[in-house]
Specification:
heterodimer; A: about 450 residues; alpha/beta; Rossmann fold; Alpha-Beta Plaits; six-stranded parallel beta sheet; 15 helices; about 30% helix; B: about 475 residues; mainly alpha; 23 helices
């Protein structure tokens, strides 16, 4: 697929990296020559220095042959303009990154489609949705639903009190009905392992478990954590994510939002009726204690500064907060932060990339999730008639190394696959795959 | 930390590719029913076995290629290719010493075309060895790394590092978002040109073997010929003009040929390097034509053909000759010597300084005068009406400085071996610039066989650093390269 990415910022360069590793042809446009040089030295992409809203630049980049045009520059106006131009000049599909929630309302969708923008992404919005989802599922650090929740992927962190620690996978399965869930992967010190029966679990492992609805209550057998209700939430940082999250959950929960900037705090309190906005420094221990951090069920740090987010979450954890969520934009810090005991890391780039990946996958992939802390992805495939995967039972099919089939959704039921499962046409199959295996896996379903 | 495993792995792959091309030469030898196919075959087995060992040994290691690994792979790759490529010349007894064999092979891979073959040997050398000699140039022309990038899917991300280290010019152009696809397209263009020239030379009266060998060495701007007196051995003006045209193409940026195939002629005409390339060729050709015409025989066409042929041949760093230019009047020889420093365009198979650098230097120097009058003015250098970054200018200045210093040091070294100034200058300029024939005792009518052993190794080294554009090899000699 030929993809043009306008804007080599964090999201743009991350997308360029991920997509080029999956054998797409990437052209990256940005006005900053130095930044592009850096990227070109490390990635197999074509870079062009200049403005993405310049028509001659777009023609030069062969936009008429582009299958996908992704505008992810810093400014919303640039993105919208670039996407419109891109479409008019022949790009098949256009995506623009925006930062105005209004544009996403379904009733205005036609305006943008007629302008030539096929899809709009609002990374902060996606991130805040993710946060809200996590608050409802307290046992897992990351959740992703397939086919409306018939199957779901759970990331579970093993702390020292987790019952499965030091046991092998085979041992943990004893006494549990393993028809309903399966550990598809473990990430340990930044490495992703697809476990076999003899592999041990150790403290600090992140387990990725695929489960159907019946299996969800069993998942706490891995972590040992009981599900708990969240009432009191403290949010650090009145960034867009903080604001959108408060807006979403302010009605059902008791939310306190701490923001450093006075002006901004006023604006936030105008906008957020059900949230208590506090003007102060979130790194100030006394302030946190005064505002009752000890009674909080969840602590969400979403300031623009990754270091502040990580440290304040560690602090909150020490104060006894059960669920901590930190926004970490610096990719190198993610694993570090996970090892420091923070329950969940969210990353705007990754959530955005997940959304955009969807457009680059072949048509029989119905959803994709990029995971934090590992470069693996979870994909939901629809098995086509006569595809290779439907020909034999799974242990007879030579499924690519670095990938594993999690579960299968057949009509209304869902179950976990084993060696004897025979995939039928039109089954939806959830596959966990490392980047190098993804394109091979795709061939099995076509 | 340098990842030596990936270096070993890729060198292994490169050796297997070399073994394949040696096998082709074996089959040529067999077609002509020659006995010495066995020597080429031995070299092929040697390459294949050592390649396979390296390949299998490091197959499972991490494939991450950084800048350092890129430079090491490219430099070592070229040296290894020559070390093994020299084997058939040596064990067949065609060359009396391994030094000669190595010199000849390095001269082949670097597309220099400086030979140690004597006049008699040209008549007696087997077809198999002659074919191998010419195919080394063809491989070296577009680059062995670029070839391996285009046929092997193994070098995904690190490919760019290798590409930068091997492709001539200050900034290599990508014509496709993927390095592999870019390399494929470049080789395809190269192949098409070679094939077209082959057909035209056959029509012009060469036999198949000569046509194939000469098209290989023209497109690589190499200059090895199957005759001791080079293209002078073919009297047909048609052949001369065909070769002029293809030397000209070989000296242009292959990206432009890609645009031509996509009918984007405007981009070719607007390319400043191309315009200067044309200008330099015609400027020098016309002056030399006039001098030859006035001072010599008075035959206009022949003077023009001689002048154009040699200007194109030397400027693109091919090194074919159709007459002994060292017998020309001194002014003409001096002009030919000057042209040695121009070289082909960036992204061509030509060597030397390269037109784009010459143009940038000229522009920058002219603007420097302007800057002296307006000290606070912002006066950037422009190429193709785009501003060239100061880093690029610094890089070009450093390159040219290194180039000149290397020429001077080289000349001193060769004079120390007892050569006169003209010959030493000529030998160094012709090997560092990958041209081939120099001046004086290494001029077009003679060869390099009389140079002492040390001199041959030294000149081989100059060829290598000239082909890899100085930086790639010189970097390996800096302490900071090896620091952890």
């Amino acid at each position: 697929m030929r993809i043009i990415i306008a804007g080599a910022g964090e999201v743009g360069s991350h997308l360029a990296k991920m997509l080029s590793q999956e054998n797409h042809d990437i052209v990256l446009i940005d006005p900053d020559e130095d930044k592009l040089k850096q990227i070109e030295a490390n990635l197999d992409v074509l870079t062009r220095t200049g403005s993405a809203t310049s028509i001659s630049m777009l023609i030069d980049s062969d936009v008429k042959r582009a299958d996908l045009f992704i505008a992810v520059a810093t400014s919303e106006e640039t993105n919208i303009m670039a996407a419109i131009l891109g479409k008019r000049l022949g790009a098949k599909k256009t995506i623009a990154r925006i930062d105005n929630q209004e544009y996403l309302f379904p009733k205005y969708k036609d305006h943008f489609t007629s302008l030539g923008i096929d899809y709009m992404i609002y990374p902060e919005m996606i991130a805040s949705r993710e946060v809200v989802g996590l608050l409802q599922q307290t046992g897992s650090t990351e959740i992703f639903n397939f086919s409306g929740g018939k199957l779901s992927l759970h990331a579970i962190k093993l702390e020292d009190d987790a019952p499965v620690v030091n046991k092998t996978l085979a041992e943990t399965l004893q006494g549990i009905d393993y028809q309903n869930h399966r550990v598809v992967a473990i990430t340990r010190n930044g490495e992703t392992i697809i476990p076999r029966g003899t592999d041990h679990f150790i403290v600090g492992d992140m387990l990725y478990v695929i489960s159907n609805q019946v299996g969800i209550p069993d998942l706490n057998k891995y972590s040992g954590k009981e599900k708990f209700e969240i009432h009191n939430i403290m949010i650090l940082g009145g960034s867009r994510i903080g604001m959108l999250t408060s807006k979403e959950i302010g009605n059902q929960h008791n939310v306190k939002l701490i923001e450093l900037d006075r002006e901004k705090s006023y604006r936030l309190s105008n906008y957020l009726n059900n949230t208590l906005v506090i003007n102060g420094d979130g790194r100030d221990m006394n302030l946190l204690i005064e505002e009752g951090i000890r009674n909080m069920d969840a602590f969400i740090a979403v300031t623009g500064d990754s270091e502040t987010n990580i440290l304040s979450c560690v602090l909150a954890k020490n104060m006894g907060v059960k669920k901590t969520i930190a926004e970490v934009e610096n990719m190198d810090y993610i694993i570090l932060a996970e090892n420091m005991g923070i329950d969940t890391i969210i990353n705007k780039k990754l959530v955005t990339a997940s959304r955009i990946f969807h457009f680059t996958a072949s048509e029989n992939v119905s959803s994709i999730k990029c995971l934090t802390g590992t470069d693996a992805e979870v994909l939901e495939f629809i098995a086509k008639e006569d595809s290779k995967i439907t020909k034999a039972a799974l242990n007879q099919v030579d499924f690519p190394k670095g990938s594993i089939i999690g579960g299968v959704i057949r009509d209304k039921s869902s179950f976990i696959a084993n060696g004897y499962t025979l995939i039928q046409p039109n089954d939806r199959v959830v596959v966990f795959a490392l980047p190098e295996a993804i394109s091979k896996v795709g061939k099995f379903f076509n | 930390m340098i990842n030596y495993k990936v270096v070993g792995y890729i060198l292994g792959v490169l050796l297997i590719i070399e073994a394949f091309f040696l096998l082709i030469s074996v089959s040529v030898s067999l077609i002509y029913g020659e006995q010495d196919y066995i020597y080429i075959f031995i070299a092929s087995i040697l390459a294949a076995v050592s390649g396979l060992i390296l390949f299998l040994l490091y197959k499972k290691s991490s494939k991450e290629i950084g800048k350092r690994e890129g430079y090491i792979i490219v430099s070592l790759g070229w040296i290894l290719f020559s070390v093994i490529g020299a084997v058939p010349f040596y064990i067949s007894g065609e060359m009396s010493s391994y030094t000669d064999a190595f010199f000849e092979t390095m001269s082949g891979f670097t597309t220099t075309g400086a030979t140690v073959l004597g006049t008699e040997q040209f008549n007696t050398i087997s077809h198999g060895l002659m074919f191998w000699r010419c195919i080394t140039q063809w491989l070296g022309g577009m680059g062995i790394i670029v070839l391996s990038l285009s046929i092997l899917p193994i070098l995904g991300i690190g490919g760019m590092q290798l590409f930068i280290a091997e492709v001539p010019g200050p900034t290599p152009d990508k014509i496709h978002p993927r390095v592999r696809e870019t390399a494929k397209r470049l080789w395809a263009i190269y192949f098409i040109f070679t094939l077209s020239e082959m057909i035209l030379l056959k029509i012009g009266g060469m036999n198949y073997f000569e046509a194939i060998c000469h098209s290989f060495t023209t497109m690589a701007t190499g200059g090895y010929s199957t005759k001791h007196n080079s293209i002078e051995g073919f009297s047909s003006p048609f052949i001369h003009y065909v070769i002029i045209v293809f030397m000209f193409f070989a000296g242009t940026n292959f990206t432009l040929s890609y645009f031509a195939m996509h009918l984007k002629f405007k981009r070719i005409i607007n390319n400043e390097e191309f315009r200067y390339y044309l200008f330099f060729i015609f400027f020098f050709s016309i002056i030399i034509t006039l001098i030859l015409w006035l001072a010599g025989n008075g035959k206009m066409e022949e003077s023009f053909r001689n002048a154009l042929f040699h200007v194109v041949s030397i400027l693109t760093t091919t090194g074919y000759t159709i007459t002994d230019y060292s017998k020309w009047v001194p002014l003409c020889i001096m002009l030919i010597f000057t042209v040695m420093f121009f070289g082909g365009s960036a992204g061509s198979t030509g060597g030397s300084i390269k037109i784009v650098r010459v143009v940038l230097l000229l522009k920058n120097s002219m603007l420097e005068l302007k800057r002296l009058i307006h000290p606070s003015a912002v006066i950037p250098v422009r190429l193709n009406s785009q501003v060239v970054s100061p880093q690029t200018i610094t890089n070009v200045l450093a390159f040219t400085f290194f180039y000149i210093v290397t020429v001077i040091i080289g000349t001193i070294v060769i004079s120390a071996l007892g050569y006169d100034m003209e010959s030493s200058f000529g030998a160094v300029a012709a090997t560092l610039g990958n041209i081939g024939p120099g001046l004086g005792r290494v001029g077009p009518a003679v060869n390099y066989v009389h140079i002492p052993v040390f001199g041959k190794w030294f000149l081989s080294f100059l060829m290598l650093i000239g082909r890899l554009e100085l930086f790639t090899v010189l970097l390996l000699f800096t302490p900071s390269f090896w620091k952890k």
